[in-house]
Amino acid sequence: MKLIFELGTDGQGTDLLPECDVPKADPGPFARSSAVRLPQVSEVELSRHYAALARRAHGVSDGFYPLGSCTMKYSPKINEELASMREFTGIHPLQPEDSVQGCLEVLARCETMLCEITGMDSMSFQPAAGAHGEFTGLLLIRAYHKSRGDEQRRKIIVPDSAHGTNPASAAMAGYEVVNLPSGPDGCVDLDALKQAADEKTAGLMLTNPNTVGLFDRNILDITKIIHDAGGLCYYDGANMNAIMGIARPGDMGFDIVHLNLHKTFSTPHGGGGPGSGPVGCKASLSRFLPGFLPNPCGSRYSLKRPPNSIGDVKAFYGNFLVVLKAYAYLLELGKEGIPEAARNAVLNANYMMSLLKGHFQAAYDRPCMHEFVITLEQEKKTSGISAADIAKALLDHGIHPPTMYFPLIVQEALMIEPTETEPRETLEEAAKVMNQILDEAQKEPSTIHLQPLHTPVRRLDEVAAARRPIVCYEYPQE
Questions:
Q1: C-beta neighbour count of 350 within 10 angstroms
Q2: Of residues 74, 79, 117, the one with CA closest to residue 420
């Protein structure tokens, strides 16, 4: 398939703009020395090009998308309609407060609902995505210790099953990352945690249920160990979909939480972004939150910056339209629907795991939460069948592969998250396909190394793509 830059001919275009009826501005020293080199294509070529790209992409609307730890749930289209209303899209962040009272009310109401779900007291919507929320939460931890003159706390404890962004965010915030090994059950090793937590511990980053899809039964002991050492507990909300409306991070002992609105609260992410990673905290930390927060003044709202705010982590008030979609989702499901969605996510994951048993080996043989991990370690040793082989073969069946080789503590891992929006029939068909692929591969291992056979591109050189990516178009030499 050709790139858009390789289509069209000189002189073609799609613009039919009238002559300029105002004086042209003089850009002065900012004027370009040469014309912008943009594709010169007709409207029909442009339309066909993006239609062809869409046919090569795979989204939730195309088929099963069990990408572990990503919560690729279906997003109701009514959320998109609401976020497309002119009354919301036509505003500007610099408008006077009196002219955006509806938008401020949305932020305030959404904050109230999400604080109730998480057990927090205040929330800022400024962070643009999950990792951005992590970084913001770590800045809150730093501000808290600094305010107490306790700046020798330079260590952040991160489990080895954590998302890769956790240690990266801690390092970006200037902390020393302490890697915490998991126990044989896939959860936090309490003895290792007790040894790691000391007077230099600033905090712990953890998600519960964790990255292998298990709820840590010792969570109250974990947060108490950190608090007794003088540190704070940060909750990575990536796996909130399993417990929303049922268990609250604040009740588990967490002081700070970020949420992925573009995952748990049904707003498209990936190619359908942007994201939103609001950060909530307990009342003792509210004064450090970034940005301006909506403040009720009678029947009106004003914007107020917390007294000891860490400043701004993004321009203005975050990705407002994403918050709006999440607000619509919260209103649609309500107090009864939110926990029902979480229960169905857990039910779907356990059902699919049961359908795969007898063929695939679960990394941890116990009931899971919203996702589970299977391991191809034994098949790799005996038949040369890898996790990547199974994932590639699924492409020929119109199924997006699960997350591969993550978490790192499981060898030849496939992490599967069906989400609550998939019907039973889809799970049964997907499990049937996976079991069939493994059966055929075990009979004739060489065949699976050739798959996929029917996709637009076959197996790519992933090492070369990672090390020598082509990220911009090189015009031919004239």
A1: 17
A2: 74
| pLDDT over 90 percentage in the chain | 82
3-state secondary structure of 168: helix
Structural domains in the chain plus CATH codes: 78-333 (3.40.640.10), 337-454 (3.90.1150.10)
The tens digit of pLDDT for each residue in 60-114 reads: 889 999 999 999 999 889 998 999 999 999 999 999 999 999 999 999 999 999 9
Per-residue pLDDT reduced to its tens digit, 334-352 = 999 999 999 999 999 999 9
Residue 201 β-bridge partners? 155
Q: How many CA atoms lie within 13 A of 86 on its CB side?
A: 0
Task: Provide the b/e sequence for 337-346 (b: ≥16 CB within 10 Å).
Answer: ebbebbebbb
Residue 447: count other Cβ atoms within 10 Å of its Cβ.
Answer: 13
CA distance 274 to 268: 8
Check if the beta carbon of residue 375 is closer than 8 Å to that of residue 411.
Answer: yes
Cα angle: 434, vertex 240, 218; to 5 degrees? 95
Half-sphere exposure of 344 (CA within 13 A, CB side): 15
The pLDDT, as a whole number, for residue 17 is 83
Q: Say whether pLDDT at 318 is over 70.
A: yes
357: β partners: 360
pTM to 2 decimal places: 0.92
What is the C-alpha to C-alpha distance for residues 364 and 3, in angstroms, rounded to an integer? 45
Nearest in space to 159 (alpha carbons), one of 177, 179, 173: 179
Q: From CA 306, how far away is CA 383, in angstroms rounded?
A: 60
The Cβ of residue 173 has, within 10 Å, a number of other Cβ atoms equal to: 18
**145/450 Cα distance (integer angstroms):** 55
